[in-house]
Amino acid sequence: MCRHFAYLGPPVTVASFLLDAPHSMLDQSRDARFQDSGTSNPDGFGVGWYPVDAPGGAGPERYRNAVPIWTDRELPELAARTKATAMLAAVRLASPGAPIEVTGNAPFVAGPWLFSLNGVVHHHFDGVGAELRTRVSPARAAAIEGVTDSELLFALALDRLDAGASPGEALAATITAVTALTTGKLNLLLTDGRRIAATAWSNSLFTDTRAAEGSTVVASEPFDADPSWTRVPDRSLLEVDRRGACAVTAL
Predict the structure, then answer these.
(1) Residue 246 is a catalytic residue
(2) Between the CA of residue 92 and those of 19, 143, 154, 182, what are the distances in Å?
(3) Are the beta carbons of 31 and 39 closer than 8 angstroms?
């Protein structure tokens, strides 16, 4: 059912969370602790980041692979040398019926936005996905590369953002659109490198703000045993800004 996280704060290496933390994404890909669909996420991974030295207004960079994260030989060197002030990454356990291919791997990117789904839209391949796609604008539908529920939900959220919604409003509207048709596990994660919006919907979600460091992490499960980690209540929307201010709203 995947594990994901987003980070805002001072420059850190991509490896800090992907590979080096006590319970890093690498560790979570093989031994997830809060996952209710097994403990392994072997169906690929991806990371998107906002480079420290990028010119103003530049979008995020991204690296994805459809192999298990622990088998990727290029990732350790890339992650160790790449620094970012914001990032979003995920390790994947493919939903039933979904192909294991790189187009299915978060993060999905459009303009300044990075997006991930930790969960599943029930009956996506039995008509629900086709119905949801009719609600996506032609321009956003044309940009969809794969067949996953994750990418389709991103397109729905992007339409809301295009219409002027805040990130949190866009995610809340996306969940409303899905739950009008079906059930699911809908932990959505969205960032533009300046703020994070996330939902906890039938899946685990935690946040960790460390004021002394000026950093905030939103993650499926804690990266370490620090007591600053707080679990986000189920059926909630979490919004975080660059200053570390967090707001939690019931959905």
Answers:
(1) no
(2) 16, 22, 16, 22
(3) yes
Q: What is the largest CA-CA distance in the chain?
A: 49
Q: Is 89 in contact with 189 (CB distance < 8 Å)?
A: no
134, with CB counted inside 10 A (0-12, 13-18, 19+), is exposed
pLDDT over 80 (residue 56): no
Q: Which residues contact 231 (CB under 8 A, 6 or more apart)?
A: 204, 205, 206
Q: Which residue has the higher pLDDT, 37 or 112?
A: 112
Q: Count how many domains the chain has.
A: 1
CATH code assigned at 150: 3.60.20.10
Q: How far apart are CA 229 and CA 222, in angstroms?
A: 7
Segments forming the whole domain that contains residue 175: 3-250
Catalytic one among 1, 2, 190, 219? 2
The count of other CB atoms within 10 Å of the CB of residue 126 is: 10
Measured over the CA atoms of residue 36, residue 183, residue 195 and residue 102, the dihedral's sign is positive
Which pTM was predicted? 0.97
pLDDT score recorded for residue 230: 97
Please report the pLDDT score of residue 57 as a whole number: 66
Chain segment 203-249, per-residue pLDDT in tens: 999 999 997 789 999 999 999 999 999 999 999 999 999 888 899 99
